[in-house]
């Protein structure tokens, strides 16, 4: 695999982060085996990873969110403009594992 092929591979895998090795192989300009692609991906340090788990919402979290919404339901857009959200998190609502 030439240096130009490695650069092409790097651009392909950084653009399509969820692509399989077979999909990456099909996108390459020159014909390269999937084993070579996989080996080069690992050499680049871009192997597959499992996304970290996000915390699940507990029943008390739902209750707190509902209480907050009911307390502030009369607020207008101007009132919300002054709020700084410091507790924004991503939550996992199911058991699905995302591959990165």
TrEMBL record:
Pfam families: HTH_Tnp_Tc3_2
InterPro entries (UniProt xref): RNaseH_sf (IPR036397), Transposase_Tc1-like (IPR002492)
Gene Ontology BP term (one): DNA integration
Name of protein: Transposase Tc1-like domain-containing protein
Taxonomic source organism: Austropuccinia psidii MF-1
Organism taxonomic ancestry: Eukaryota, Fungi, Dikarya, Basidiomycota, Pucciniomycotina
Domain Transposase Tc1-like per the UniProt entry, residue ranges: 8-74
One GO MF term: DNA binding
């Amino acid at each position: 695999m030439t240096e130009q092929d490695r650069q092409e591979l790097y651009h392909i895998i950084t653009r399509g982060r969820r692509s399989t090795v077979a999909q990456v192989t099909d996108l390459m300009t020159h014909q390269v085996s999937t084993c070579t692609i996989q080996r080069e991906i690992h050499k680049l340090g871009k192997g597959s990873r499992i996304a970290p788990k996000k915390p699940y919402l507990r029943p008390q979290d739902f209750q707190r969110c509902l209480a907050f919404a009911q307390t502030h339901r009369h607020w207008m857009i101007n009132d919300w403009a002054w709020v700084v959200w410091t507790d924004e998190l991503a939550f996992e609502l199911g058991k699905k594992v995302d591959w990165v």
